[in-house]
Amino acid sequence: MSSAFIQDIIFLVAVIGLGFPIGKLTYKIMEGGKIKFLGFLRPVELCVYKAMGVDENRGMSGRQYAIATLLFSLFGLLFLTALLMCQGFLPFNPEGLPGLSWDLAYNTAASFVSNTNWQAYSGETTLSYLSQFLGLTVQNFVSAATGIAVLFALIRGFILKKSKTVGNFWCDLVRTVLYLLLPLSLIVAIILMSQGVVQTLAPYAQAAFLQGGGSQIVPLGPAASQIAIKQLGTNGGGFFGVNSAFPLENPTAISNFVECWAIIVIPAALCFTFGKAVKDSKQGRSILIAMTLVFIVALTLTTMSEYNLGPQFNNVESSASIEGKEVRFGAGGSALWGVTTTAASNGSVNSMHDSFTPLGGMFLMFMMQLGEIIFGGVGSGLYAMLAFAILAIFIAGLMVGRTPEYLGKKIEPYDMKMTCVILLVPPLLILGGTAIATMMPQASDWLTNSGAHGFSEILYAYTSGGANNGSAFAGYAANNVFNNVMIGSEMLIVRFIPMAAVICLGANLASKKAVPKSDGTLSTTGPMFVGLLIGVFLILGALSFLPALALGPIADYFTML
């Protein structure tokens, strides 16, 4: 177990150490500044603006920004749905795979447009190369950039004064893709290809067995390019069916570390971006500390759970729970990836979460149920955490009888309404969807297991969809009309209603004047605020989901005693 914790320490050092320069780069992107070492991309940026008819110097109101965000995502949803349904008639389909059914196409399109990447299919047997690189990979870029753009709108709400605009969505989108996501993806893709991750348009290969005279089909495709952005953009959808547990998607210890690192490096970097934008690095640092502390606790508990087999395995000669895990990475490596992917709304896996111990699986579930804020998705994690910060400040203000303020802006009733929408829509959809799915007459047919573990499979599926995570217990048969429509709609609602509320919140904050600090202003950089912030989102998560967790993984644990 000690080697696992050493790996965890190196991992966190790499995330925070490289997150700082990436955060500075992202700040330059947000403010529209020149990026010297990427200056050769400036003509490309201008050409894109000209083709789109966009004036980079013209800002948008909150309403305009929200409409642009929603219409762009709607276009992506319709285009991707049509592409998936028609892939059988389109090129770059060497295996002759047919088009998807309407419900699976809708579910998949909703999944990738919402930055969830829930997959009710197996990639190598369902999707053509064209669907992978033109459909899914493109959405991996633009859905991630959309989340970051909306975060920019909220941050501008804090730094602008009496402003009627919150930036330009199209400029934020283009600059994020061009200067942040594409360069980082290129670097990560090259590293992955050097480790053996496939990147080809060649048809699937036939490999002969060394013994017995048989053979098997080896799936190929342009995998490295998609894997790079699926990790960096906290998308997570695997090119192949078993995601990063597949040897051609994650072949070595180096590729495993890089892919895992890529999941949270941008969410961590955005904390530095936030601190630099508000001209107080301590603000971003306090948010990062709160995230990191909870991450460390969850990682420690999950790792310990996976190394503790439980009483029914007392006589088994094993040092850890290896069922459903790659022996290349072991229980420690699987625990690190599992906590990282659920902390960051990524959803990629290098093991099967259905095979985690009951408490290990519970910690993964709870990380999503907190609201995907412990690092969270790119952009979406930080803006949800800032909503929790506003709630914490509001509660503190009630306790002392003072109008709450955050970063020089008064928090008023409208701001709290938007904050409540941001924070309450996901748990409502998660618990409501789980309840409806559980009551379906055919629910038992969709489960691999019965009892408490079976309920955990349903709860995990709707938690994953409602948290825009996309991972699965892998024991729940989700590819049917009911689940495709329910989970697909859930993913869209929990993505775009809170996103619209974030933009409205940013616009309202931007229209206000700054309030000077006074002796009564609550410090939002010290240990007390960090503790208050952690307490608020842990209590809210516990109050919302503890009854459901008691029926699922907690009950599953006690049945093993």
UniProtKB/TrEMBL annotation:
<keyword id="KW-0633">Potassium transport</keyword>
<comment type="subunit">
    <text>The system is composed of three essential subunits: KdpA, KdpB and KdpC.</text>
</comment>
<keyword id="KW-0813">Transport</keyword>
<dbReference type="GO" id="GO:0030955">
    <property type="term" value="F:potassium ion binding"/>
</dbReference>
<keyword id="KW-0472">Membrane</keyword>
<dbReference type="GO" id="GO:0008556">
    <property type="term" value="F:P-type potassium transmembrane transporter activity"/>
</dbReference>
<dbReference type="Pfam" id="PF03814">
    <property type="entry name" value="KdpA"/>
</dbReference>
<keyword id="KW-1133">Transmembrane helix</keyword>
<dbReference type="GO" id="GO:0016787">
    <property type="term" value="F:hydrolase activity"/>
</dbReference>
<keyword id="KW-1003">Cell membrane</keyword>
<dbReference type="InterPro" id="IPR004623">
    <property type="entry name" value="KdpA"/>
</dbReference>
<feature type="transmembrane region" description="Helical">
    <location>
        <begin position="176"/>
        <end position="194"/>
    </location>
</feature>
<keyword id="KW-0812">Transmembrane</keyword>
<feature type="transmembrane region" description="Helical">
    <location>
        <begin position="287"/>
        <end position="307"/>
    </location>
</feature>
<feature type="transmembrane region" description="Helical">
    <location>
        <begin position="253"/>
        <end position="275"/>
    </location>
</feature>
<comment type="function">
    <text>Part of the high-affinity ATP-driven potassium transport (or Kdp) system, which catalyzes the hydrolysis of ATP coupled with the electrogenic transport of potassium into the cytoplasm. This subunit binds the extracellular potassium ions and delivers the ions to the membrane domain of KdpB through an intramembrane tunnel.</text>
</comment>
<feature type="transmembrane region" description="Helical">
    <location>
        <begin position="530"/>
        <end position="555"/>
    </location>
</feature>
<feature type="transmembrane region" description="Helical">
    <location>
        <begin position="421"/>
        <end position="440"/>
    </location>
</feature>
<feature type="transmembrane region" description="Helical">
    <location>
        <begin position="65"/>
        <end position="90"/>
    </location>
</feature>
<feature type="transmembrane region" description="Helical">
    <location>
        <begin position="6"/>
        <end position="27"/>
    </location>
</feature>
<comment type="similarity">
    <text>Belongs to the KdpA family.</text>
</comment>
<feature type="transmembrane region" description="Helical">
    <location>
        <begin position="133"/>
        <end position="155"/>
    </location>
</feature>
<keyword id="KW-0378">Hydrolase</keyword>
<feature type="transmembrane region" description="Helical">
    <location>
        <begin position="492"/>
        <end position="510"/>
    </location>
</feature>
<protein>
    <recommendedName>
        <fullName>Potassium-transporting ATPase potassium-binding subunit</fullName>
    </recommendedName>
</protein>
<keyword id="KW-0630">Potassium</keyword>
<dbReference type="GO" id="GO:0005886">
    <property type="term" value="C:plasma membrane"/>
</dbReference>
<keyword id="KW-0406">Ion transport</keyword>
<feature type="transmembrane region" description="Helical">
    <location>
        <begin position="381"/>
        <end position="400"/>
    </location>
</feature>
